[in-house]
Amino acid sequence: MSVMRKGVSAVAPHPTPEPAGNPEWLNTIMKGDCVAALNKLPSKSVDLVFADPPYNLQLGGDLHRPDHSKVDACDDHWDQFESFEAYDAFTRAWLMATRRVMKDDGSIYVIGSYHNIFRVGAILQDLGFWIMNDIVWLKSNPMPNFRGKRFTNAHETIIWATKSKTAKPTFNYDALKTFNDDLQMRSDWHLPLCTGGERLKDDDGQKVHPTQKPEALLYRVLTASSQPGDVVLDPFFGTGTTGAVAKKLGRNFVGVEREQDYIDAATSRIEAIETGSGASLDMQKGKRAEKRIPFGNLLESGLLEPGAELSCSKGHHLAVVRADGSLKCGDFTGSIHKVGAMVQGASSCNGWTFWHTSKGRSRSPIDDLREEIRTRLRS
Amino acid sequence: MSVMRKGVSAVAPHPTPEPAGNPEWLNTIMKGDCVAALNKLPSKSVDLVFADPPYNLQLGGDLHRPDHSKVDACDDHWDQFESFEAYDAFTRAWLMATRRVMKDDGSIYVIGSYHNIFRVGAILQDLGFWIMNDIVWLKSNPMPNFRGKRFTNAHETIIWATKSKTAKPTFNYDALKTFNDDLQMRSDWHLPLCTGGERLKDDDGQKVHPTQKPEALLYRVLTASSQPGDVVLDPFFGTGTTGAVAKKLGRNFVGVEREQDYIDAATSRIEAIETGSGASLDMQKGKRAEKRIPFGNLLESGLLEPGAELSCSKGHHLAVVRADGSLKCGDFTGSIHKVGAMVQGASSCNGWTFWHTSKGRSRSPIDDLREEIRTRLRS
DNA sequence: TACGTCCATGAATCGGGCT
DNA sequence: CAGCCCGATTCATGGACGT
Question: Which residue range or ranges hold the DNA methylase N-4/N-6 domain (chains A, B) (predicted)?
């Protein structure tokens, strides 16, 4: 494979849990045009994409006439259309190239401001991507609006999307909830700008990259939508924040960047990073990750006897356990879930938390017995 | 002029500073299709537009809360579109009709969610509108994500645009700054949902409109981008929040609405309002309360590294920090609070004061690190 | 009256594995 | 691929009601 130009395999691949045989493009920065470089990667090889595309349209003189003459809205409209057309074509091109290298259940995050994010979002939808959330990064220390003509632009927008409506992306819900003091993570992220020691400066003290993103932002994206060992692509790598955080969190990365200065800065930056130890990268897991225990196991293991009586938490509903693992409540029989739903008149029910055993006056959910089985299995 | 159908001039025009001779459509609700109604208004007659168009939510089946109650979703027919193309055509049509009736220096605000706002924003740009800001309405009390599959959708986006790049829109910078405790008004607005007494209910106690917006939101829009006596258009009038706030603030309004039920509700609502009663109205101020800092922020910001060891104040209990912000203590994992409670055998625990970092022989609570983050956020 | 508990509800693109 | 069925999943707020 000749994905990389000479001298561009900038960062030595670091050890990761998997895959064992790393392709040579892994944990490197590919120099060159975004689309051309992406076309050299294999299809469906990337778990997560973070993209911070350029959005300098309208900020330069593109829309001014050379003579600065005043134009009415109609003429102006044509100029804008031309410019937006070009930006749209660029956006479609890199999004299509990115789409090809994404795994079917992968995620893509794109960040932008009001100058470009609406075009990016609409094109994502037009290309068949399925938006999961939009997220707002609220800057605690934004640049004030000096002229007092607008609201202080204190946020940027991030779109999280999958390749299709039916995709089942990684989403570490429990890890994020734990991270957030046991509350669901919301779509508003309050994070400071990238400043201070984190901001890369050149020898003259000038910032190396105009829009270096804070590592905290990438930390959260990678924690949400990837697992250790996953491959994270950043098609506009810049000074390598994505790669730095990926390495810190034990993910693999691959970047694309055109400017050699940025590649150099990113390379040394990432080399200085140490991957966290294996155990510290484990994520908080929820019940969904646990092995399924059929209710019948409680009988097989002797934790429940056939004929045992179960009740709801308040003792209003009673049912008898039968030897085959079904419940009998009046004339109705079925699984713990079905009978639980029936007695409540609900369409569904989690029998594990609904039904309880009694010891004296206290009741405990049969989920405790399931946990006992799991403990035995682990030991 | 025959803008209004009989019986539709629903709200008696109220006295306003100007214009002296009010056109008959002023301070009325026009019944019918948005574009057809707008085409009956004179060109360049409107100072400010607030539009809350259909979001084109594409909902699947029913959604239930964990307690099995059913979510009362917005599944009204007016929110259904066959395709993005159909939604785009609809959006272009009402935006072009709106553009004609806007004064050249007027402003338009459009609110939406990720389902539609990217299409609206791109079409605004395509039609020659000039985006001044995008604003995020952060909901203090959003509906949670019940299935744990996405981030809590805790915000909506508002686009503020003018008819052209050269427009000079009204922007009451100083008034907003005063409202905001002498700080520049930012692009993030923290406001609660429209609930409680403000929410219009019918005789059965059911909400009249599925998406009634809070008056505080409109209060802020009108305060920012209009003057007393200005004309404010809402092409999707609904139950008349825009009209209600306009009357309170001494602005004129004109609304368009198709559903008679909404018109009736809006009419009586607005009739009950007195102009200038807003003297006692205080704009919802940006909350200066101390922000909650989730434990995960310490990792994102680099104040703690994955793998770091924490202890209780006396060093009896030890735990390891994992990359996702969970603690690991033996086989037990969870948030700093849960693990703290577990090791003490307590039902709850303030992890911030219980867990300590060590430097040499001295220990300091991780609360100190949280204070460090707060300091950074304040800077 | 004050306080505590319970309940209802909000623009929501909300499951997944096995047969 | 459709169907079956296990079983996981919520936060802030306001109002009603009880003590």
Answer: 46-267
